[in-house]
Design goal:
Helix content is 61%, strand content 0%. With 111 residues, it is an all-alpha fold.
């Protein structure tokens, strides 16, 4: 949902879908901050799976529309999406590295 928050910051448009995402998943939050209003895993999973369709529907004709620049000089929705894909790729690599370290540690313990 990160890209929606960036798109909203860029376009100054708000979305009901992201209304509480900063509260639940913003910088400095953790699962201990979850409340009964926080969506369950299945609901979040469904939102994430539908993201490409939502982005296509809402923004496919506006990808290169220019707005006042935000962080890192980003001024188009296209740039937001590129930045987000790169950023999420860094998270994926970190998780893959952690899994690799855990597997390596388990292997050395078993020897």
């Amino acid at each position: 949902m990160d890209q929606f928050l960036w798109i909203e910051a860029l376009t100054q448009e708000t979305s009901e879908a992201t209304k509480y995402f900063n509260q639940w998943f913003g910088f400095g939050t953790s699962p201990k901050d979850f409340t009964s209003e926080t969506p369950a895993f299945e609901a979040l999973n469904n939102l994430l799976r539908d993201q490409p369709n939502v982005i296509k529907k809402q923004y496919q004709h506006r990808l290169t529309e220019q707005f006042a620049p935000i962080d890192m000089g980003i001024y188009t929705i296209e740039q937001v999406l590129i930045r987000t894909i790169f950023h999420e790729g860094m998270h994926l690599q970190a998780m893959m590295d952690i899994r690799k370290c855990i597997a390596k540690e388990k292997d050395s313990v078993q020897r």
